[in-house]
């Protein structure tokens, strides 16, 4: 069974949600498109991941050439081991 919600309760909730949307839009900046910003961030993350993957390949090759572990290369170059 679904509980009935009064018209007044629905209108109050709609007003609350609209106020939240307005506040978030103000934080984002007037005229800014949130979807556009998200898409730009996704593109930047893809570029970052591609650069990181290429770097890891080079570190792996360097480790092979020096006949040491990738972990040791990270340690020698003061690079973080994880993400």
Automatic annotation (TrEMBL):
Pfam families: Swi5. The keyword Cell cycle does not apply. Residues 7-34 form a coiled coil. One of its GO terms (cellular component) is Swi5-Sfr1 complex. Keywords: Coiled coil, DNA damage, DNA repair. GO terms for biological process: meiotic DNA recombinase assembly involved in reciprocal meiotic recombination; meiotic joint molecule formation. Belongs to the SWI5/SAE3 family. This is DNA repair protein. It comes from Lentinula raphanica.
